[in-house]
Amino acid sequence: MTLNKILEFAKEQGYEDVEFRCKWRGYDVYTLIYSKDEPDSCTGLPFVALVQGDTIRISTTEETFQYMDEVLGTDE
Questions:
Q1: Is 10 exposed, middle or buried (0-12, 13-18, 19+ CB in 10 A)?
Q2: Can you list the residues of the chain whose pLDDT is less than 50?
Q3: Confidence (pLDDT) at 76
């Protein structure tokens, strides 16, 4: 999937931008950015966009917690 399609999906969901984060559990993971002016702003859980082939979706609550534990739970 192209970055433009991923960005279009994110904008449809109310986000301004995306940033590739990593590969996780067979998905390309993109951070969803609410505001380009404040890229670290977050309201609630840090849901991410999960891309696999031609399919894109936002992580579920359970996946978000798993992602936080497995990826963000390191020294970041």
A1: buried
A2: 76
A3: 45
